Input
Amino acid sequence: MSAGLAKQRAGEGGFTLIETLVAMALMGLVLSALASLTAQWLPNWNRGLERIQRGELLGIALQRIGADLAAAEYVSANRDAGHPLFDGSELSVTFVRTALGPNAGPGLDVVRVGETTDRQGLATVRSRASFRPLPLASSLSEQIHFGEPVLLLRAPFRLSFAYAGEDRVWKSGWHDSDKLPAVIKLTVRDAASERILSISTVAPVHVQSSAQSDCAQPGGGCDGKSVAPNNSPQGNLQGNRQGNSQAGTAATGQGGSQ
Output
């Protein structure tokens, strides 16, 4: 009985202790190699993912700023002011636009987009205040108290503005002008490397001058139709047509009376 069991066990296959130790050693080498590869690959993956997310956030911020600037209105600070309420510098811009927001009613907002400093450093913030006519000889900083800040950009990224009129000449500031700028350039740069990002863009402004300015132009009508001067060929032609029509009407009346 014992001899048969011994023969049966002798025919069975298995691993020896040395083979098991060698297999465990090989498994340890493979796992260590995979761990080193993962440790080198995972940070690059995280940096790439952060770069993509940062680019998306920058794109959303620039779209928001561009939409605000495109909706700028030609609104004076008060009745006696001869220019729109618009103040643009290299690092900030203040303008008037229609109220925007989930709880905003009909009306206008004074919007400021510019840099500010908080506990984490420099940041570009959008803030707003309800528009009210300003007293004479008063500055924007004294009369307008902005609130509801919305974070758009944070260091190391910085946003700068440049302004151009219809002549397309870029200026670093736009103050006390009779018209709004035609286009505003938004430049985003990395403050650490001073590199300008390709996401920088140009925002057109839909309104540049007051709607009443067309009425004061020679040959311009308030209804948007041009009026030809009397001494122009078109004016003479219109006058001749009116004279002929009046003469024809008078002749018809005389013939009927006879």
Remarks:
- The radius of gyration is 37 Å.
